Amino acid sequence: MGWSKAPRILLIWPRRGNVLGRQVDLSVLQRRASGLGAQLGVVTRQENVMAYAQELGIPVFRSTQQAQRARWRRPRGLARRLDWRKRGRSYVPPEALREQRAALKATKAQPLWLRLGAFTLGALSVLALMAFFLPSAQVRLAPATSQQELILDVWADPNIPVANPSGGLPARETSVVVEGSEQVPSSGATSLPGRTADGMVLFTNLTAGSVDIPAETVVVTLDVPAVRFATTREVTLAAGSGNTAQAPVCALTPGSAGNVEAGEVQALEGNTGLSVVVTNPDPIEGGTDLSGLAPTAKDYEDLYADMLVALSADALEELTQQVGADSLLLAETLHVQKVLEAVREPEPGQPGDFARLRLRVEYTGWTIQVADLEQVAQTALEFDRPQGYQVVDGSLIVEPLSQPEMDGNSTARWQVKVSRTLRAQWSDTQIAQALAGRSRGDAAEWLSGTLALSEAPNIEMSPNWWQRMPFLAFRIGVQTQ
Question: Model-level pTM?
Answer without folding.
Answer: 0.53
